[in-house]
Prior knowledge:
The mean pLDDT is 88. This protein has helices at residues 17-30, 41-51, 67-77, 92-96, 111-124, and strands at residues 10-13, 35-38, 55-58, 82-87, 103-106. It starts with 9 loop residues before the first strand and ends with a helix. The longest helix is centred in the first third of the chain and has 14 residues, at 17-30. Helix content is 43%, strand content 17%. It has one domain: Rossmann fold, CATH 3.40.50. Helix 2 runs parallel beside helix 3 (67-77).
Amino acid sequence: MTQLDKTLAVLIAEDEDISRHVLRAFLVSLGFENILEATNGAQALALGREHAPRFALLDIYMPEVDGWEVANTFKRELPGTILIMITGSRDMADLDESVAVDGYFFKPFQKDILLEKMTQLDQSHPA
């Protein structure tokens, strides 16, 4: 399996401090160098437009703009960004909308499985 380019930007959009810090620590432990953090969907949109990240790890329920709206906007404006929802929601209605994203993970997630999925998506998704 090919290694991920750790210099590419990764956006974390998560309103819960603890979840955001866990994701950041996970990415840092893997060697990612360019980690962007947003505490709401509006910040995520602004950071995404400015930096065009390779990955966006999105929570569904965030203030101002939810994760689905961020994902749909990124799909239109940033087709090279790989969109992964990471959510604590277990509502099956949320899964119905997952077609807009490239991957979907429930909290708590297994780090090795998330890394494997990121690597697979990076290889199969045009930049």
